[in-house]
Design goal:
mainly beta, globular, 7-stranded antiparallel beta sheet
Amino acid sequence: MRHPRLVRPVLAALCCTLLLTWLPSCDSVDEFIEQAGDAVKDVGGFVKDAADEAKEHLPQDSPGTGGPTANRPPRPTGTITTGPSAMVASQVIDANGGTVRVDKPGEPLDGLELTVPAGAYSDTRQFNISHAPVNEHTFGQYFNPATPLVIVENGGEYSSEPMTMRIPVDIPPNHFAMAFYYDDEKGTLEGIPFSSIESDSITIVTSHFCTLLVSIINNTLLDDLLKTDIDSHFRPGIDDWQFPNYGTWSTPNGKCAGHALSELWYFCEQPDGVDRTLYGRYDRNGVAPATPELWQDDSLGIRLASRIQGLLGLNWSSTAVRLMRLLTTVSDELTFKAFAYTIQLTGEPQYVGISSSAGGAHAMVCYRVHHGNLYIADPNYPGNTERRIEFKDGALRPYNSAANAADIAAGNGQQYETIRYGAKTAFVDWKELGQRWQEFKSGNIGWDIFPQYQLLIGETKDQPVPLTDGFKSPSKKILLGGTALCPIGVKVYRDGTLFEPGADGMHELYDGDNLLGFEVYGDRNHDPQNRAWEYIDFVYVNVTYGDQECRGWVLESVTTRNAYLAEENEGWQDLTFTSSDGRFTGSGRYRLYHDVNRPGDDRFATTSSSGTWTALPQCIKADTPAAVQVQLSSSVVYDPMESYHWSPDFYLIITGPMAHEVAFSQNLNHVQPTAQQSEEAIIQIPAGTATWNTTEVIVRIGCPEGNIDYVYTYVWRG
């Protein structure tokens, strides 16, 4: 699909015409503006309702903690032991910028210069520079500190413009040098981009400072490393997004940096658990069944990448060009070694920035250095493991790609001659990426940068009404569209394919349920003569018509069995266990030590647990996956004592005719006093027969205070 190019950017907040689009013609909408206005006098209320309903289809309790995993070796960690620190420079820098210099002859940082450009910060900042001698480290033979630990304190916030710092360091002939951030809490290193390396200094480029130092390595040793396989174990098709880099409303020229940075963040931070993989995990926003052939319905990931792209500024190309200008003096050989050395020491993939002399820039991930090649995860080619940048005869060969996947599809790829090392957090606030991830998980990502809209349905052109999930249509043939504070258009899908209207522009519904997918676009130009349609969202809405009798497995009853409640006694106190269809809670206080002569020395353990599972479907069609979100959390708090000899058990299991069962079992102790698990179970039942027409799905729950089974009995009505 080719997305129209942006001609004249218009922010969503500036759109002012209320417009209803009835498919299939976008040009036929003007006559309906008045009716649409009447139908949506309170757009804000409708949009809020639509957002709340949409969240029912979003991954608030997604299968993020389940799904595929990849076994990878642990990433390198270590410690750096230092002597006492000493401040060597302190200066106030205002919004006009300035330079902090260390003028301390005899000090190891004498000659250090930190340059803050005008506009880097909007307020006045105090810059303090200290250093501490490195006594020893445990990062291995390839890490050789050549400077003290450098501590730069300025409030910690990221600057709006890149800053540079020239660090004095003695770099012997035939050696390579590179600066690294050091995180003493995590015990990790992280490379920092540089604009020059001289025999007596290295100049780094960054938007934030913390604790850092310079390491050197003999080129002979590094060349030997380059003959091996330097691998972060990141892989396209496993660790990148599954959707391509098309433009959106907020990022019409593409969101490549948003792809690359969110992929790096997910790989490094592992928010869904150790070795969980990203590719396909949030296909269709994590709701089963997956739709790998329809990337457009991965709307939350698309919006997340767009939102993160925006962290680099509204004009990504200009931001990238400013960064590239600071890095252009770095040779290809030093760039190639920077990727190799950093991946070797950190075990993490790295950000790649590329630019073209013809104009334009692009962002990617470098995850491996092998046989003279940088292995690339390109957002324009999701899942493609064949992308490479070759290093030959001291130069990186030009790389062919484009600003976005639409240009690739149109045959408008271009050569990028400048390829530079971008590291990981040097230019983007890593903590803010984590905040955006939480918005992604809650289903709220992008509501502040994309236009709000309302889907509409009607029997005739002059009677549109808001379309919400579960809408019961009185007519078999309907009109579908949408409205917003700017011109919008929608594509409608049913059963994973385009749901085309008839010659009369009407869509004909099935009897019963119709799960419709709406791909929503907005016209950024706001110009009927020169449309610039850009992606806004994708949402599923179920519309029912006529006979809703289930043709498949019908939930006939929900019963319980194997119920047990623990009895209180002197040692087991304050026991509670409650359950209902869909949830349970338990808590209790258990005596672990008792001396009849010294009752005041009694020691107790207090437990607490809860579990939930979403409602099982009333109707399950044969061989059709049905998702149930399952969650279990538990904790135990021990009174202080010399030894702990009680380990309580908690479980929540869903079993039966399943494509994917969930069996949570949590055994707690003083070493692991808490546990929390969340996963998606998939019910999938084949067609019944005359002799097999009843089956059960069972949810088993238990904790020290009690246990019970919930039995969901389904009968075949095929």
